[in-house]
Amino acid sequence: MPIYQTVAFEFDSAEHGAALFNLDVEGNIYTRIGNPTNAVLEKRVAALEGGVDGLSVSSGMAAIEYALINIARSGEQYRPLFRSCTALLIRSWRIFFRSAGFLRVSRQLIVQRCREAD
Is the pTM of this model over 0.85? Predict the structure, then answer.
């Protein structure tokens, strides 16, 4: 599989480009949205993990954001396990949910609950 080192892709015509941007047809539009190299990575990781599909992002913080945004529901409270996540989540979650509530949980309680789960 070649690595595509490009930021843009050529369209067959203006109509083809419009169809791609309208998501009427599948294809590559812009590297930050998706590209053949990422598509191969995503499909191979999904196959390794037994998933249906995958999503690759450029940083761990982006991965954390995507994961939490997909499981979070308004009104729920969460306890970030890593302090580096707290500022990111408070800022971005206030945009999406208008408030960001985090539970204050001691490490001792987390360890206790993990042991109980075993």
Answer: no
